[in-house]
Amino acid sequence: MPADILAKKMSQAVTGEKAWRHLEAISEATAANGGHRADGSPGYDASTQYLTRTLTAAGYKVKRQEFSFLDYEIFSEKASVTAPNPRTLTPIIARFSISTPEGGLTAPVVVPSGKSTGCTANDYAGQDVKGKIVLVDVNDCFITQKQITASEMGAVAVLMNVNAPNPQLNLRYRMVPPEDARIPIATLNRGEAEQLKSDIAAGPVTVNVDLRGRNKMTKTYNLLADTPTGRADNTVVMGAHIDSVDTTPGMNDNAAASAMLLETAVQMAPYWKHVKNRVRFAWWAAEEKGISGSQYYVDQLNEADRSGTALYLNLEMIGSPNFLRQVYNGQTADGPGPAGSDRISGLIGGYFADRGLPTAGLVLDGRSDHSPFIAAGIPAGGVNAGSDAVKTPEQAKVFGGTVGEMLDPCYHQACDTLANVNRTIFEQNGRAMAWAVGRFAVDTSDVNGK
C-alpha cells in the first residue's frame, strides 16, 4: 500500500469520537484512584492498565520499561503575612527547593529596586536584601537563576509571582538542575503577589514562609507497544506522556493525547501487513517530572538503536480550549533541529493546509518529550494546542478564542477535566497525527534517506 493511501486510511479511521471513549476511561480511572496520575500513584497505574488491556485486545505485546528518577517529596508549603496586616498566603514550593527550618522563617519582604524579574544583580542595585525575602516576577530567566541571584545578594528566600491572567492561578516550578538550589523558593498567584506589592509600597511588610521538602527516588515505567511488522532498523516512534501533576486530573495535559495515541495504535492494527517501518507507540512516564521517561528511553538506546530510529512524533496537550493549531516547526531555540525535522513539520502543516486549517509554528523547545530525541540527533515533530502562553489579538483573528487568556486556562489546575478539552481541535490534531504516522509507517525517505 503506498504511503499516501495508508496515511489517508489512518486519518479516516481515527476519529475524535472513538478516541473520546478512551479519554473517558482514563478520566474514570483517574477519578477513582486519587484524582491524578502522578508517577507512582494509583491513578497512574489504573490508567496504564486500561491502556495495556486495550492494546493487548488489539493484538499488541505491551512492554513496561521500568526506571527510577529523582523526585521531590513535599512536607510543607505555607506562608502568611505576619505584619502589619496578618493574612494567609497560598504558596507552591518549587521542586528541589531548599527547605526552611520547621515552623518556617520570618523576614521582611521586598521587591527588586530595578527590574521586577530579579534575574541579575543590577536588578537589586543600591538595595540591601540581606536577611530578607524577595518578591520577583516571572519571565526573563528561569526560576533557578532568580534564586541564585537572590542568594548571592544575601536574601533568605524567594517568592515568585506567576503573573497569569487568572489572578487565582498558581503553578509549580522546579530547580534545573536540582543541585543549583540555594535558598527556599515558591510561587504565588498574581492576586496575592499584587496585594503584597501594594502593601510593600505602603510600608514594611513581614512574611513567614514554611517551605519544606526533600529529594527522593521514585519508581515508574513507560509503556511501549510495537507493530509486529516493519523494519526494526527504521523505527518510527510516536508518543505522548500519560502522567499528570498531582494538582489535576490532567485531561488535556495529557490524557487527551494519550487517548488519541491509543486509538491510533488500535486503528493501525488492521494495516500491520502494509507497515514497512516498524511503529513504536510510547506512553511516557514522568514528563511532568523533568521529562524523565522519554529521557530514560533515549538514554537506553545504543548506537544501532539511535541510528535505527527514523523519527519521533509527539502529541502534547492536543485539546486546549483556547487553542492555537500549533505544529512543531523543525527549529530549536539554538537553530535548526536534526535534519529531517523541518520536513516532518512541512508534511504535518501541509495536511492542515490542504484542509483549509491555518497553523502556527512552535519551536522544538525543552518542554515536552521530543526534547531528548532532538538532543540525540533524531528528527522530531508533532502538534501542541498550547498551555500557559497568552493568546494575542493577532492569534485570535486567525484561530478565534479569547484574547488575553491562556491557551489552556486550566493548565495544571483542578479544572482540567473532560469539560476542559476542546473536541474540535482534539479531533483535528488526532487525525493529522494519524495521517502522519500512516505516511511514515510506509515511507521516511524524505526525512532520513531510508
Account of the 3D structure:
- The protein has two domains: 3-60 and 227-448, Zn peptidases (Aminopeptidase, 3-Layer(aba) Sandwich), CATH 3.40.630; 74-215, 3-Layer(bba) Sandwich (Glucose Oxidase, domain 1).
- It is built from 13 helices and 16 strands.
- Helices cover 33% and strands 24% of the residues.
- It is an alpha/beta fold and 450 residues long.
Task: Write a concise synopsis of the structure shown.
With 450 residues, the protein is of the alpha/beta class.
Task: Looking at this protein, list some descriptive labels.
450 residues, Aminopeptidase, Glucose Oxidase, domain 1, 2 domains, 14-stranded mixed beta sheet, two-stranded antiparallel ribbon, metalloexopeptidase activity, aminopeptidase activity, protease
Write the layout of secondary structure elements.
Blueprint: H1 3-13, H2 16-31, H3 42-57, E1 62-83, E2 87-89, E3 92-93, E4 105-110, E5 133-137, H4 143-152, E6 157-161, E7 185-188, H5 190-202, E8 206-226, E9 231-241, H6 251-268, E10 277-284, H7 292-300, H8 303-307, E11 309-316, E12 326-328, E13 331-332, E14 335-336, H9 341-354, E15 360-362, H10 370-375, E16 380-384, H11 393-399, H12 423-442, H13 445-448
Parallel strand pairs: 4-5, 5-6, 6-7, 9-10, 9-11, 11-16, 12-15
Antiparallel strand pairs: 1-2, 1-8, 3-7, 4-8, 8-10, 12-16, 13-14
Straight-line distance between termini:
17 Å
Structural class: alpha/beta
**What would CATH call the class of the largest domain?**
Alpha Beta
* Rg (CA only): 23 Å
Query: What best-fitting shape do the alpha-carbon axes yield?
Result: elongated
Helix coverage percent of residues? 25-40%
Instruction: Predict the CATH topology of the largest domain.
Output: Aminopeptidase
Total helical segments: 13
Count the domains. Answer: 2
Low-confidence stretches: none
Mean pLDDT: 98
Helix and strand succession?
A: HHHEEEEEHEEHEEHEHHEEEEHEHEHHH
Biggest sheet descriptor: 14 strands, mixed
Q: Give the total of beta strands.
A: 16
GO molecular function, one term: aminopeptidase activity
Domain PA: 106-196
Domain Peptidase M28: 222-434
Keywords: Aminopeptidase, Hydrolase, Protease
